[in-house]
Automatic annotation (TrEMBL):
Keywords: Signal
Signal peptide: 1-20
Protein's recorded name: Penicillin-binding protein
UniProt key word Signal: yes
Organism, as annotated: Deinococcus budaensis
Top-rank lineage group of the source organism: Bacteria
Length: 130
């Protein structure tokens, strides 16, 4: 049985790291975009390594994707994804209390529904769930 991309992302986000500091239910700090009903925000930095598989999973979810490149060193995002960079982007990440990069947030109406932090190695935490 094949999972829908959004379901896969939601299941992955449903298993946050024990040391996650982003608080569920919190309102997003100030940002430059108009929030949608549901969206995915990827907060990352230049030292995250290859995020190709993570970007693929996030883009496959079919939700609007916001990219926040924190820590003042430019790092690429997939074509077509607008990236927010600079001191304000870093302040956004710190106001969220991001504990590790990359951090993926599932947001609804400007509030954090779920968060996943840490190194992504291609495993969305779905082993044994089929």
């Amino acid at each position: 049985m094949r999972r829908a991309p959004l379901l896969t992302l939601l299941l992955a986000l449903g298993t946050p790291a024990a040391d996650a500091r982003v608080r569920l239910g919190d309102v997003l700090p100030a940002h430059p975009w108009t929030s949608g009903e549901r969206e995915v925000i990827v907060v990352y930095s230049h030292d995250c390594g290859d995020l190709g598989e993570l970007w693929s999973a996030v883009l496959a979810a079919g939700l609007p994707v916001r990219a926040v490149n924190a820590e003042d060193v430019p790092a690429p995002a997939p074509a077509g994804v607008n990236v927010w960079r600079g001191p304000e982007a870093t302040a956004f990440a710190r106001a969220l209390r991001v504990g590790a990069y990359p951090t993926v947030l599932l947001v609804r109406g400007g509030r954090v529904l779920n968060a996943w932090e840490g190194t992504f190695g291609g495993d969305l935490g779905l082993a044994g769930t089929r």
